[in-house]
Amino acid sequence: MNATSVDKAPWFISAADQPPALEIVLLRQTVILSWNQFVFAEGGDDEVRIAFASHDVVVNGAGLGPLLHAIAANRVARIQESGRCEHFPGQVGRFIREIVVRKMETE
Q: In which band, very low, low, confident or very high, does the pLDDT at 3 lie, cut at 50, 70 and 90?
């Protein structure tokens, strides 16, 4: 898979066809979700929600508008949470402050 960074953003867009999955790199674990399970995405510049059949993903940060559009096209190969040392209140530009992944409960 060929991937390209977007203006040093903490996400990578597939340069080829749609990647088979979205890799979510958290501080303590990595979660891989199949694009076949993608349901919808919504949000804006400071928060993006990505719904999969099995998981709900919330991305918080800044400059996330382009990420939302790339997710809608299923072109994102990887998103990565910032390290703790990168959590500065005055940080500007495109960055991901936090990613929360919740497994959907089935009854």
A: very low
- The alpha carbon dihedral of 13, 18, 24, 30 has a sign of negative
Q: DSSP state, 28?
A: S
Long-range CB contacts for residues 79-83, cutoff 8 Å, separation at least 24: 79/10, 79/11, 79/12, 79/22, 79/23, 79/24, 79/25, 80/10, 80/11, 80/25, 81/10, 81/25, 81/26, 81/27, 82/10, 83/27
Distance between first and last Cα of the chain: 37
Instruction: Name the residue with higher pLDDT: 38 or 89.
Output: 38
DSSP state of 32: E
In sequence order, what DSSP letters do the residues of 53-81 get, joined into one string? SSEEEEEEEES-HHHHHHHHTT-EEEEEP
Q: Which value, to the nearest 10 degrees, does the dihedral of the CA atoms of residues 22, 75, 59, 39 take?
A: -80
Least confident of 7-11, 16-20, 23-27, 98-102: 7-11
